[in-house]
Design a protein that fits this description.
about 210 residues, alpha+beta, RNaseH_domain, seven-stranded mixed sheet, globular, RNase H type-1 domain-containing protein, RNaseH_sf, RNA-DNA hybrid ribonuclease activity, Nucleotidyltransferase, domain 5, 6 helices
Length: about 210
Amino acid sequence: MLAFTNLWRCQILASTTTKPSSFLVLRSYRKEPIPVTWEKPRVGWTKLNFDGSSKGKSGKASIGGVIRNHKAEFLLGFAESIGEANSTIAEVTALRRGLEFVLENGWSHVWLEGDAKAIVDVIKKRKQMKKIKCEEVQKHVSHINSIIPKLNDCIVSHVYREGNRAADKFAQLGHQQDEPRIWRYVPPNEVMPIVHEDAEGKIVIRRR
């Protein structure tokens, strides 16, 4: 997790067979499950979780996000269909839209969090902008980079999808919307249980 000030983480398989030792080495470790939780921001901060969704061959994409305060209280959620786009474009569009809502509402101490590690890394390390070949992605990232300096403080981090469930649900709702939707203070019924579970610190196990 990187802070910005006016800028920018075996199970051994028992075997009684006589297979070669090299085979046993390859089969001897099973990745342990990872406990994942959504974390509250610090007092005085708001947290934006964002996500994008792209539907396979159809290429139909949508975005979603949720903003909560240090008490895990729901402040704002959004969902929108953005037409045909790949998952990368959907992710950066979701972050951009979320940051626009942050500015509109005057939240100045903001934690940005998403489950697309490549996008998070690009925002954290501006030098990686040179590696982006897609002009549309470059456009969105440049806009994101122009918004972040307007905030008093900003941190950005990656979280596994299990810790980004509310934003993911909003992104899925986006596929159902004919027009952009915004929810203030009260989340839609589809997201309500997740918001409550996050506030209570529910642990979701990630099976790798």
